Structures are given as C-alpha cells and as structure tokens.
Amino acid sequence: MKTTRLTVSEAIANFLAAQKVERDGQIDRLFGCGFAIFGHGNVTCLGQQLNRIQDVIPLWRGQNEQSMAMAAVAYAKANRRERIGIATTSIGPGATNMITAAGIAHTNRLPLLMLAGDAHTSRLPDPVLQQVEHPHQPGLSVNDAFKPVTRYWDRITHPAQIIQSLPAAVATLLDPANCGPVLISLPQDVQGLVYDYPEALFEERVHRIRRPEADSRSIDEAIALLKKAERPLILAGGGVHYSKANERLADFAVRHRIPVVETIAGRASLLQSHPCNAGPVGVTGSDSANALAHDCDLLMAVGTRLQDFTTGSWSLFRHPDLAMVSLNVAPTDAHKHRALAVVGDARHSLARLDDALGDWQADAAWLDSAQAVAAEWKALCARRGEITPGQVASYAQVVAAVNAVQQPGDTVLTAAGGLPAELNMNWQSRQLGKFDIEFGYSCMGYEIAGGWGAKIANPDSDVVVLVGDGSYMMLNSDIYSSVLTGHKMIVVVCDNAGYAVIDKLQNNSGNPSFNNMLADCRSQADELVRVDFLQHARAQGAHGEHLGDIADFRAAYERAQESPRTYVIVVDIDPTKWSSCDCWWDVGLPQQVPDGVDAERVAAMDAGRVHQRRGI
Predict the structure, then answer these.
(1) H-type helices in 262-363, by residue range?
(2) Which residues contact 27 (CB under 8 A, 6 or more apart)?
(3) What pLDDT, in 10s, does the model give residues 196-206?
(4) Which residues contact 393 (CB under 8 A, 6 or more apart)?
(5) How far is it, in rounded angstroms, from Cα 405 to Cα 511?
(6) Are 542 and 567 in contact (CB under 8 A)?
(7) Is the pTM of this model over 0.85?
(8) What is the mean pLDDT of residues 96-113?
(9) Residue 81 CB coordination number (10 Å)
C-alpha cells in the first residue's frame, strides 16, 4: 500500500478537497464553501491547511460562529442537500456557538460539517485556555454537548482515526434518510501529529446521491388504498424538493386528479398556477388546504415529517376512517401515525405508483371543489396585499410587494416571528423552490445569516431576506459579512416594535401583554428609545432606506437592485394586522386558570382538542 506522511490537518484538507458530487450529470465539488473564525484551537494547524486549499474550497470569514454555521446550513438547503458547507471554530465558546446551527440542520434534515477545536489529548497543559474542566470525567469537553444535535459525532484522538471517520462523516452528510449535521472534534495537539496515510484516501471521489427503491409489497398496498379512496389528498413536504420530484408530482396529481397541499418546507413544490395546487396547509396555511384536510379520506404524505404546524397538532384530518400512506426515504417519518409506510425515494415511488395506477382517477367533483376553495384563498391573498397609501403596512402587504417584484431565480427567505406565517399564508409561487422558511427549528437570527449562505449558493440572482426587528436584534452581523465578502443581499426589516406574534399568542391565551412589545417591557428609562435599523445597517457598510409608505416599495426595491452592496429596506409594521386561517394548535395551557387570566380565551384556545387524533 502506498502511503504519504501528512499531519492530521493536511490529511483532512486533502480529503475534503478530493470529494466531488454528481448532480444532474454535472460534477461539482461536494464541499462548495467553508466558514471560519480562527482561534488558538484551529488556526495554527487546520487553518493553515484550509488556506492551502482555498482555490478548491473557498473559505469565508464569519463574524459569529453561530451565524456562519447557519450560513452553511442555508447554503446546503439552497443546493437541495447536494453541496455542503463547512464551519470551523476554535475550542470552548467558539465551538458551542455552533450548537444552535446544528439544531437547525438536525431538525431540517440538512447537511453541515463542523470542525471544532478541542483541548489537548495529552492533558499535559491542562486546563488550557477556554477548557471547561470536569474533575470526575477528564475526557469530557463542551464538544460533547453537540451529541443531541448531530447525526454523526467523533473526537479524533489518534491520527489514524480519520481514515474511518471522514468517509463515515461524508456518508452521513449524503444519506437521504439520515442526512444531518456532523461534528468532528479536533484536539489541538492531534491536529499537528503526523501519520503515514494510504494515498487512496485522497483519491478523487465522485459521490452520487442514493435513490432507494420502495418495497414492492408496500407499493401494491398503497395502490389498493388509493383506489378505494373517494377524496384522496397529497401532502407535499420538503422531501419533494430534495428528491427532485417536483415534475413527477405535478404530472401524477393531474393524471389522477388528486389535489395537493403543501407543508412549509414543501412550499413551491408546485407552481401556484398548477390546477391541483390547493395551497399551504396547517396552522400557518390556508382555509382552502385545511378544508380539504378536514374532508379527505386518504392522506398521501410525500417527503414530510408531519410537524405540528402541518397537521394542526393532528386536529386537521377529521375523517373517522382516514387512511394514510407515507412516501418517505426515512423509515422513522414514514411510519408515523400508523401510516402505510412506503420507504423509498419520493420521485421513484411516485413513478411506480403512477405506472401501477394506470388510468385510475379520483372523482372529478373532489378536484373541482379543491380548485374552488383554492381560488377563494388566492383572492383573499390579493385582498390582504392591497395597499392604501399612507397607512402603516401589514406583513401581508410586504409579502405581496416582494412577491410582485420577484424575478426568476430569486430566493425569498425568512425564519421566525410573525413573518413565517405571513409568508407561508400569502406567497404565490411562480417558480419551483427558491423559497426558504426555516420553520423546523424556527430559529430567530437565521434570516440574515441564511441569506448570506443562500447568496453564496446563488451568486447570480437576488436573495431577499425578510426579517423582523426581534430577529434582527438577535443576530445581524452577517450584513457586514455580506458586504465584506461581496455577496449582496436585499434585506427587508419589518419593524413592529417588539415580539408581536408572541404578544398575540399571549393575548389569545387570556394573558395581558407582558415583556414582548417594547412598550410593555419593564424599564427604568425616562423614555422608550427605538432602534434606528437603517443607521445600524449603514454602520455595517450596507446601503438602504427607511420606507415611509409601503406604496413606494417597488421604487425602493429597484434602488436595492441597482445597489452594488447589500441593501436594507426598513418598513414599519402595524402589530395588530395579521393573516389567519381555520386551524388549531396545541400549546400548553393551564388546567387551573389563575387570577388575571381570561378563562374564556383559554377555553376557546383549547376547544380544538376535540378533533385531535391520538396517534392513529
């Protein structure tokens, strides 16, 4: 066996540079970008080697470890899990800052490779700078805290270990069922150790995403259930995008006359103009999709993990004899709620079902009713987006304004607060994909960081970030990252002076406003001081403007398009104007209502429980 003597860091860099992926017949680098904040735990060895391979894997400097890892997650999502971002940090606080980003990746089934420094394996200099000591477990470090939010975790204590660990990490990152974040913990002294590595480890490797085939018996059983159904409904999840099943789903639905509703992750699986697209479903969905969910007698879930916002905490599907078929590459998701599990790739499974169903079609009246309620929802969205000059804007008006100016290839992105609901409820998809609502982990702060990562993935198109004032305050430094690295975004800051959506939930659950809106927060100050988001963004090098009237949005957006740098448009939002739909959500409510809480409102919020399915 031919070997080459390398340090651990050299070997890691060479291995990463040799990984490629085939997608749609084209060969690309698997690791398309990296993000780093260097410290004593990763700069001297690993940082040196990442610098050496920059022509192969471009490395961008982050301002915050959490946000740069979020950017890597968004990069992977924009590439439909086929290209992956790397994030590397020093030890201690730099490493633990990535835990939230790992939570996002894990929840959303997205790949993320994290390389974090760690304390010396020799323990000779212990306790080292930024090391958290555990007297009764000296081998434990803060990097162990990543274990609940990673799909693969390893600490390298000997140079030979990466021969097995790195290929296993890549296999996890590319596994369609087990895809998620990976943490490789790299003790400082181990990074510089040398070893005679097999040259074969560094040979170019072209990976191809597996498309597992479903068991024939499960296909046959699914066919039998479909043919018995009178009102079948397809629920399209994020797996439709990752399987590249959009075209197959569009054809399947038309051929068999089955309405389609979309989850948040599955939004833009079909064009809004598609005759079977009945809109978004669930707590932040549409009355059209939710009404169909109430009445369907068979639910065919495609590529979804059936989150509570999708199922209305399992109160949406009300047919007493509801049958469920779940097409999913992940067995855990496919078997939920005692569904008939068709475990396999969504695109392949749909093709096999299509062939086996032949000319079978659902009742035309069922699809007609779906089209009628979908038309009502679209008209409602149009009314919500109508603008009266001079009035303080609503979220829905901002969404409609962005929707109107979107060009082919542009991406729209948001994550937390009131914007995910408003974007999901009102967006009209004119292109497939290019739509990112991070609502699995619903992480405040993902928006701007995610926009940076999405822009790196889509350098030739605009990325529009919708962010609330609360999320902006939580994490905004990647405005500067985008300016520093030349990845221009358009950021729309919606300022409603607080955490208005949680204030709404607080009030709807019978509680008075407290600690959410700025005006309702405890303070000893003489006056309420508001943040000047425009000046703050300009201080980070961005251009922008504070929009006085939402009627002027198009002109402001044109100026944003012409700007050579990230452009921030600040819009004041009326915190009392919300979109809504008919759907229940199970939140924790007091069984004994305390004084000061509106008991009638508590009872009203709990009323939907009567429709909740208990695991069946």
Answers:
(1) 287-295, 308-311, 331-334, 346-357
(2) 20, 21, 206
(3) 999 999 999 99
(4) 387, 550, 571, 572, 573, 574
(5) 39
(6) yes
(7) yes
(8) 98
(9) 23
